[in-house]
């Protein structure tokens, strides 16, 4: 598999970063956990941020051209017609989910999630005093899929909101249009508002097609608010600017109930970065998709060579590999054993909720050399952990 210009990034440069991915663990740990990428910022974004500093422009965020920039980009990318006035600024996607739950539901109302899923979904529902209803994913072939029967059952129990992850983190699948149409029909029939977290959608990889939920059908559009951001796909998570888009009557009514100060909690640099990303970040995004596509297949080869007990289906979007390590015999949390004995930090499977035991999530948005190093450390960690664990059957 060919080299990519981003493969030239050196470990020392990354270790100089002060963001959570690189600063959280001791320097002997290779971090492959939180969803940050190791790639350089897109040049148009870097230039826009430097220009802002040069003009001493560090005041409060103003959504300004963000609606227009997002709408133009969404139309070019997905042929999704969005009116700029339907694009609302919020600090980040998780804050958007929290604020929307507050205005769309009452304490105690039921909210559906599809575990194993991005951990803040469950913690946000709990923190807002709402009741969690789970519609766990089902195994489909070697991977996972949404269980529409479980979703229907949860809606029948009186769910008010469904927090959907599309594309799915950590399972890595892109929801097909038929599933989204069925979901929209269910949401309409049971009066459920779907908060569709599409933060990973701009990084949909070759072979898959992402459909923004409101594009699936009129029913879906009438029940959906899409939460998205340039932060994951252009690696701007610390700058704090995300968008919430609602095109139907009810979604617009919910968005209109948000506190007026909501957009002011966003970051000014985040808005500047997001506008540059949507307007001029296409070439960089294509370059990033190329290395992620390479890495997801490289990981298949690396696991086969070094950790043959691992089971993995390459993600259809983004850069998070959901790896089934149950055969390795490292218990519910193989990431803990790999951190302790291999000095590599993955995200623990159990933190993603039901269905996560025995799994770990590996961030593959790195160079070839560091991906090879991560798998080598996982394998060494697994071996060392096994060697240290007491034999379960001394006579067997
Ligand atoms: C599915 C999903 N939603 C939201 C986020 C976090 O987004 P934000 O920083 O905008 O809250 C992440 C981060 O990894 C994610 O994977």
List keywords for this structure.
396 residues; alpha/beta; Aspartate Aminotransferase, domain 1; Aspartate Aminotransferase, domain 2; 2 domains; 7-stranded mixed β-sheet; 4-stranded antiparallel β-sheet; 16 helices; 42% helix; globular; binds pyridoxal-5'-phosphate
Task: Produce a short descriptive summary.
The protein is α/β, with parallel strands linked by helices and 396 residues long. It has 16 helices and 15 strands.
Structure description:
With 396 residues, this protein is of the alpha/beta class. It is built from 16 helices and 15 strands. The chain has 2 domains: 5-42 and 283-385, Aspartate Aminotransferase, domain 1 (Alpha-Beta Complex), CATH 3.90.1150.10; 58-280, Aspartate Aminotransferase, domain 2. It has helices at residues 11-15, 20-23, 43-54, 66-78, 93-104, 120-127, 148-156, 177-190, 213-216, 218-223, 230-233, 249-256, 268-280, 282-306, 334-342, 368-388; strands at residues 30-31, 87-90, 110-113, 131-134, 138-140, 143-145, 161-165, 193-197, 224-228, 242-245, 311-312, 320-324, 344-345, 347-348, 359-363. The N and C termini lie far apart (43 Å). It is 42% helix and 14% strand. The model is unreliable at 392-396 (pLDDT under 50). Helix 5 (93-104) packs parallel to helix 6 and helix 15 packs across helix 16 (368-388). The strands form 4 sheets. The chain has a 7-stranded mixed sheet with strand order 2-10-9-8-7-3-4, sandwiched between helices. A 4-stranded antiparallel sheet has the order 11-12-15-14, covered by helices on one side. It has a two-stranded parallel sheet with strand order 1-13. It is globular, with a radius of gyration of 21 Å. The site of pyridoxal-5'-phosphate has 14 residues, from helix 5 and helix 11.
């Amino acid at each position: 598999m060919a080299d990519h210009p981003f493969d030239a990034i050196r470990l020392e440069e990354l270790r100089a970063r002060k963001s959570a991915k690189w600063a959280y663990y001791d320097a002997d740990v290779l971090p492959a956990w939180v969803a940050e990428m190791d790639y350089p910022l897109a040049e148009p974004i870097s230039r826009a941020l430097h220009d802002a500093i040069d003009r001493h422009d560090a005041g409060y965020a103003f959504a300004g051209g963000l609606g227009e920039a997002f709408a133009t980009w969404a139309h070019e990318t997905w042929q999704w017609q969005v009116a700029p006035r339907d694009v609302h600024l919020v600090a980040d996607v998780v804050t958007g989910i929290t604020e929307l739950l507050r205005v769309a539901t009452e304490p105690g109302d039921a909210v559906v999630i599809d575990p194993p899923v991005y951990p803040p979904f469950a913690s946000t529902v709990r923190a807002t005093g709402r009741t969690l209803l789970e519609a766990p994913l089902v195994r489909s072939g070697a991977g996972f899929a949404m269980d529409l029967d479980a979703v229907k059952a949860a809606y029948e129990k009186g769910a008010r909101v469904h927090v959907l992850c599309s594309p799915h983190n950590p399972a890595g699948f892109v929801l097909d249009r038929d599933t989204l149409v069925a979901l929209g029909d269910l949401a309409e029939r049971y009066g459920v508002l779907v908060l569709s977290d599409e933060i990973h959608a701009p990084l949909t990889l070759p072979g898959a097609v992402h459909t923004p939920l409101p594009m699936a059908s009129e029913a879906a559009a009438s029940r959906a608010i899409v939460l998205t951001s340039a932060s994951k796909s252009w690696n701007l998570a610390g700058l704090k600017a995300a968008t919430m888009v609602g095109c139907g009557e009810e979604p617009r009514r919910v968005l209109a109930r948000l506190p007026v100060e909501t957009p002011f909690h966003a970051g000014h640099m985040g808005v500047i970065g997001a506008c540059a990303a949507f307007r001029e970040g296409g070439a960089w995004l294509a370059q990033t998709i190329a290395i992620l596509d390479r890495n997801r297949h490289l990981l298949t080869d690396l696991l086969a060579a070094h950790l043959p007990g691992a089971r993995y289906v390459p993600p259809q979007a983004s850069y998070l590999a959901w790896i089934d390590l149950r055969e390795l015999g490292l218990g519910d949390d193989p990431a803990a054993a790999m951190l302790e004995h291999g000095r590599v930090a993955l995200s623990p499977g159990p933190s993603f909720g039901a269905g996560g035991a025995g799994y770990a999530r590996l961030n593959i948005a790195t160079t070839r050399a560091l991906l090879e190093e991560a798998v080598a450390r996982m394998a060494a960690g697994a071996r060392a952990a096994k060697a240290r664990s007491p034999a379960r059957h001394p006579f067997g």
